[in-house]
Amino acid sequence: MNPRLATVLSVLFHPLLLPTYLFVLLLYYLPPEVFAYPPAGRRLIVVLVFILTFLLPVFGTLILQQAGFVASLTLDARTDRRWPLAVAAVCYTVLTVLFFRMSFFDYLFWMIMGVITASVYLTLVINQFWKISAHSMGLGGVLGLLVLLHSWLPETYLLYPVIAVLVISGAVISARLALGAHTTKQVYTGFFLGFMLGISLWGVAL
User: Fold this and answer.
1) What percent of the chain has pLDDT over 90?
2) Is 203 left (phi over 0), alpha (psi -120 to 50) or beta?
3) pLDDT, the chain, mean
4) Are 120 and 92 in contact (CB under 8 A)?
5) How large is the greatest C-alpha to C-alpha distance in the chain, in angstroms?
6) CA Rg, the chain, in Å?
7) Is-contact 145 112, C-beta < 8 A?
8) What is the DSSP letter of 100?
9) Do the Cβ atoms of 28 and 43 come closer than 8 Å?
10) What is residue 98's predicted lDDT score, i.e. its pLDDT?
11) 113-162 pLDDT, tens digit each
């Protein structure tokens, strides 16, 4: 794969952006009756997800770099990823708790964010001794969640998104390998673990 294309794919589908993409899909792609929110409510949810799962973790990483805890914002070294992952885990936990505690939010939101947050903590733990691919973990998790939601919904609303995520996952995994960011074992292990976390609520009654 061309290095420039591989870099674009890695940035466009950065793990921190995946929760925002997922909630945009759920709130704007699915029929309104699935999540009965007015337009203003939908925008509020997406903005909240974007701030807590992307902006604050990125801002935290910038501060960590300025403080000398992170050598590069690309987090190429395994040791560079420890504190940024911890910051992301805290931000994701806050959002999960907000979704759980506030009745305004559909209860599915905290379940979804709970799974996503668990994947961040798992990545943080594994990263202490092995540089697992966060891109693969995130995409595997999104795929697993979409498959899970597809099984819960009465219609096949999410069939095409599932196919799209499969294609995107293949492209991003190829990009990470082309850039030499991870080994084959690191990307495929990450994808498998993310997917298993994504479908971990299988069998839970709605």
Assistant:
1) 65
2) left
3) 90
4) yes
5) 51
6) 17
7) yes
8) H
9) no
10) 93
11) 999 999 999 999 999 999 999 999 999 999 999 999 888 887 788 889 99
Q: For the residues 61-79, what does the mean pLDDT come to?
A: 82
**Chain position carrying tokens 């995946």:** 18
Q: Which amino acid is at 126?
A: I
Residue 67 has pLDDT above 90, yes or no: no
DSSP code of residue 1: -
Dihedral, CA atoms, 114, 51, 88, 84, nearest 10 degrees?
Answer: 170
The two three-digit tokens of residue 160, written as one number = 């095409």
